[in-house]
Write a structure and sequence with these properties.
Layout lengths: L4 H16 L2 H29 L2 H15 L10 H22 L3 H22 L9
Helix pairs in contact: 1-2, 2-3, 2-5, 3-4, 4-5
């Protein structure tokens, strides 16, 4: 799905601001942008699952793997965050494999696990002690 002109302008403004901000603020901005892309890819995956669009599922899952390997992904430099990231990446890889084999049940399970890993990590980042670790 093509981004709207407003989305393109906002992204351009955000990228431009990143060059004007000091190190940590730039990192935070980059992390927010990456998380927005993560959300978009996850939404495209859900649509792909609903429509059994294997190409959309696989390509967006692969994009999630790539995003999770970017420096801006690292919102925290802790062992717990590293485990959450590893878990997320593993679920995204499983989602890609399920799409490649056209297995809707495996894709649905991997998507559910991927979503749960996001929610758990965000709870952890907010300091919710009930968030499972890794």
């Amino acid at each position: 799905m093509k981004p709207s002109p407003v989305q393109v302008r906002i992204l351009g403004l955000a990228v431009g601001l990143a060059f004007l901000l000091p190190g940590q603020a730039r990192q935070d901005l980059e992390t927010r942008e990456i998380m927005q892309h993560k959300l978009q890819h996850a939404q495209f995956i859900l649509r792909g699952i609903a429509l059994q669009d294997w190409t959309a599922i696989q390509s967006n899952a692969n994009q999630l793997v790539k995003l999770s390997q970017m420096a801006g992904w690292q919102a925290r430099q802790t062992p717990e965050y590293a485990l959450f990231s590893l878990e997320f990446r593993r679920h995204a890889e499983n989602l890609s494999k399920a799409a490649k084999s056209k297995n809707i049940d495996a894709a649905t399970l991997a998507y559910t696990q991927l979503t749960f890993s996001c929610v758990s990590c965000h709870k952890h980042l907010r300091g919710d002690s009930t968030a499972p670790k890794g």
